[in-house]
Amino acid sequence: MVAALELYLDTAATRRIRVLWDALEAEGVQSMRSLLEQRHRPHVSLAVAPSFDPDQVAAALAGTTVAAPLRLSFQHAGQFVGRVLWLGPVPTVELLEHHRKVHHRLAAAGIQLVEHYQPGRWVPHCTLSMRVPNTLMAAAVRRCLEVLPLEATVVGAALTDHARGISHPLP
Predict the structure, then answer these.
(1) 3-state DSSP call for residue 104?
(2) Helix or strand run (H / E) with residue 139
(3) Which phi and psi (to 5°) does residue 119 adopt?
(4) SS3 label, residue 97
(5) What are the angstrom distances between the C-alpha of 37 and each of 41, 50, 60?
(6) Which of 33, 63, 72, 98 sees the fewest Cβ atoms within 10 Å?
(7) Is 138 exposed, middle or buried (0-12, 13-18, 19+ CB in 10 A)?
């Protein structure tokens, strides 16, 4: 992932995920806390691209509230190929419709988006670790289950490119 449109969670949910990051680190699993000089913040990415032009994205999303106050109910832990560990919110009609609307506006503006984030393929998730060692996966999942269920509200959004230190807040 190079550039992303991220949805941020309320303070209580953010705090609980940061505590989970610490618990994973205590198990020997590098969490998102350790990456990129601790600039990561718990989030759900709506769209990902090799890069974003902030002005083009702002124009494409004009009049859209990206940080819609959606309620998210994280009910499960999951793993993507490559040992990526995450928490997943229930894919409600509201969440999927919001994703589709934002994605459609970006695509209509000619912004090239990563295939796995396309409507119908997107798996909403909050990444916890990018590479869990196989020998530590069971302990890592057990730690995740200790915090579930986790209720959250979307309270902010930003266009980010962490590798380049870029973060542009969105409405």
Answers:
(1) helix
(2) helix 137-147
(3) -55, 140
(4) helix
(5) 11, 21, 31
(6) 63
(7) exposed
Model confidence, pTM: 0.94
In angstroms, the CA 28 to CA 86 distance is: 16
**CB of 103 within 8 A of CB of 46?**
yes
Q: Which two tokens stand for residue 118?
A: 């396309």
Could you tell me the two tokens for 122? 């997107």
Q: Are 6 and 44 in contact (CB under 8 A)?
A: yes
Alpha carbons within 13 angstroms on the beta-carbon side of residue 107 total 14
Tens of each residue's pLDDT in the chain, 171 residues:
479 999 999 999 999 999 999 999 999 999 998 875 567 899 999 999 998 998 999 999 999 999 999 999 999 999 998 899 999 999 999 999 999 999 999 999 999 999 999 999 999 999 999 989 999 999 999 999 999 999 999 999 999 987 778 889 998
Q: For residue 4, count other CB atoms closer than 10 A to its CB.
A: 21
Q: Name which of 150, 154, 167 is nearest 20 in CA terms.
A: 150
